[in-house]
Amino acid sequence: MPVTYHRSGATGVITIDNPPVNATSQAVRAGLIEAARAFAADESARAAVILCAGRTWVAGADISEFGKPPQDPSLPDVIAAIEALPKPVVAAIHGTALGGGLELALGCHARIAAPGTRMGLPEVTLGLLPGAGGTQRLPRLIGLMPALEMITSARQMGTAEARDLGLIDAVASDDLTDAALQMAERLAGQPPRRTCDLPAPPADPTATETLTADLARKLPGQIAQRAAVDAATEGLALPFAQGMEVERAAFRALMDSPQRAALIHAFFAERAVAHLPQIKGVDPRPLDRIGVIGGGTMGAGIAAACLLAGLDVTLIERDAAAADTARATVAKLLEGAVTRGKLAAPARDAILTDAFRTATDYAALSDADLIIEAVFETMEVKHQVFAELDRVAKPGAVLATNTSYLDVNAIAAATSRPADVIGLHFFSPAHVMRLLEVVVADRTAPEVTATGFALAKRLKKIAVRAGVCDGFIGNRILSHYRAAVDAMVLDGASPYQVDRALTGFGFAMGPYAVSDLAGLDIGWMTRQRKAATRHPRDRVPVFADRLYELGRLGRKSGRGYYLYDGGKPQPDPELEPLLAQVRADLGIAPRDFTDAQIVERTMAALVNEAVRTVADGTALRPLDVDVVMLNGYGFPRWRGGPMHWADAQGLPQILAQIDALSAEDDHFWQAAPLLRDLVAQGRRLAELNEGPKP
Ligand code: 3H9
User: Fold this and answer.
1) pLDDT band at residue 614 using 50, 70 and 90 as cut-offs
2) Ligand 1 pocket, CB under 6 A
3) What are the tens digits of pLDDT across the range 499-522?
4) For labeling, which of 14, 76, 319, 379 is most exposed (least CB within 10 Å)?
5) What is the atom index within ligand 1 of the atom nearest the CA of 268?
6) Do 444 and 507 reside in the same domain of the chain?
């Protein structure tokens, strides 16, 4: 029974117990209706408390039910039944009160929260709006604009702010259940204070228009935020019951939208990546003392990420001066966390004195549980580092490389303990980016893989398992679709048009703006590295080499594809003549591309290579690719990731595009055999997320 009713003195106690997060599944909704009836019929009970077992109050509606036929009773009906009770009901909140969970609390007649409780309406992150009264009750309780801000930002609020805004009535100073029972006793005999009876706040057209304009600018293409504002404002102009109907209709419309399907796919995919059969039931190794080798951008970022997660870090640099620089870089990153309110200044000081050390001798790593190297990207240097680690690391220490493309099997071969070696590919800035590719080499032990995933969890990052290959999942796919994009520029497209077309599709940044950010030297070095193995028919972006040779390295030199003079990046009038010269040198007659063609070719190349990574096991499932592209490469979340997008688009259409393009270049445009097989079998990529591969 996920919901029970019992009495404590003169107070009825309704307990929800539906692990892991007390989501309002059909059984919980039906149980709540039953419990509300039992309380109403219990003449000895003068008030009631609703509380939750386990680690949290209700974290929302049961997302796994979305997209399936709805089952009665609906959550709005359950909340209405509780709100209509003739005796007061107190919500005793702890953990996270999110979405339908917060809406349930809003339907209670009073709210008390344990310290540390977080409250929010995250529905827009799932492509929905609060559909159980959130758009109608929250503004009545805390005011129109605070409510709209909370709904459209999906921001979670702490108890102090919630108390100030009137979202909760009290914060429990001691035991939450005792405090809630006392509150119920105080309210017993009083008429219930129903949120639905509070007057609707007056409309504020100016503030609402400013908010919707901001949303359109910041979240182009996304529909849920705007729909939430509209539903709230339209509904509040009507009596409560009609306002609820407006909300319901808008909720149902969003439930049917592709954006909802995409965002919920992203939600579950981000959780499914950690479910690996290889490490099921395998205990990770200890993970308290971390060693980092190299204090450059990546090493310092990794050290900061570990320190912010409460781990002890020793960072090795080659000499005292480099160690001092690394220490200053890490201190600066922690200072940034203080500025952003993520870390208190005294905690920062304690970290720098007690938890963080720099050293120049590898011997300082002798008691480290896990050591991550972030040194120069050549096999020779990696071999030296791993041979040294093999000498100093304690038995059982995990030895990790942060390489972004090198062969982890070859790196492991430099040690006498290849089972302990793994790739941990962080993304820059490492203390901010949530993605971590856990690169599992041929001989990596399962508990070492489990430790990589445990580290990600500790750092609040999303770990995705990747196999060994040049670029692993993300950089391998990137380099392929990047080749398609560069080919279009060689053939006549402007880099600015490409960036515009792809940001129009929803990418966070266009590929040429990304090049400028990363530095054009990075791409140049990659091309140098791959030159020896390049196929004669591979097309080389000669224009990128020319820019590099001119010292135009991107943002860091003030000039790359764009001009940077402090303000917004500006197109450079000298770029087009340079491109024209390159095309003339190569004998290419430039032609025009439409934005739609740019998107079509980029996505066809991206999907094709992504399917190959799944086919050869570099990515375990299509969903692993989606999580990588969403969290490391700025792919629009509301499109669910490239594999989800491809299914929604239709695999036959993508295959037809690739086949048509092969008439132009049958070297680059070769459909992945798995893509062809899936189309022939009438199957979707999503089917490969579960069960055996075809
Ligand atoms: C809504 O409420 C609509 C209403 O307005 C209207 C309705 C009419 N449902 O994240 P974790 C699973 S929309 C089903 O790893 P954490 C999750 O898949 C909803 N399952 O834990 C995972 O399963 P598994 C609004 C859910 O401690 C397990 O629980 N609410 C749900 O890092 C643990 O999850 C939200 O959007 C759910 N609602 O974080 C809140 N939530 O172990 C969504 C979780 O098999 N949830 N699961 O992989 C969260 O943000 C986080 O889960 C939470 C805990 C912060 C609660």
Assistant:
1) very high
2) 20-21, 23, 59-64, 75, 96, 98-100, 103, 122-123, 126, 128, 130-132, 134, 271
3) 999 999 999 999 999 999 989 998
4) 319
5) 18
6) no
Residue 39 Cα to ligand 1 midpoint, Å, equals: 28
pLDDT digits (tens, 9 = 90+) for 229-249: 999 999 999 999 999 999 999
State whether 394 and 532 are in the same domain: no
Residue spans of beta strands (DSSP E) within 337-432: 356-359, 370-373, 398-401, 421-426
Give which of 263, 258, 68, 268 is closest to 648, Cα–Cα.
258
The residues annotated with a catalytic role in the active site are 103, 123
**Tokens 């996920």 belong to which residue?**
2
pLDDT tens track for 310-360: 999 999 999 999 999 999 999 999 999 999 999 999 999 999 999 999 999
Beta bridge partner(s), residue 97: 119
Contact of 650 with 632, CB cutoff 8 Å: no
Q: Are residues 163 and 122 part of one domain? A: yes
Distance CA 326, CA 303 (A): 10
Q: Is residue 106 part of a domain?
A: yes
Percent of all residues in the chain with a pLDDT value above 70, rounded to a whole number: 99
- Please tell me the distance from the alpha carbon of residue 170 to that of residue 526, in angstroms, as a whole number: 58
374 and 438 in a common domain: yes
Task: Give the sign of the dihedral formed by CA 662, CA 667, CA 669, CA 675.
Answer: positive
Q: Are residues 598 and 555 in the same domain?
A: yes
CA 599 to chain centre: 23
With cut-offs at 50, 70 and 90, classify the pLDDT of residue 183.
Answer: very high
Ligand 1 pocket test, pick from 21, 93, 627 with the greatest ligand atom count within 8 Å of Cβ, gives 21
**CA distance to 348, 644, 678, per residue, from 682 (Å):** 56, 16, 6
Residue to substitute in 24, 63, 129, 460 for testing ligand 1 pocket (most ligand atoms within 8 angstroms of CB): 63
Query: How many folded domains does the chain comprise?
Result: 3
Domain that holds residue 241: 3-256
For residues 507 and 384, membership in a common domain is answered with: no
CATH number at residue 28: 3.90.226.10
Phi/psi at 2 (nearest 5 deg)? -75, -15
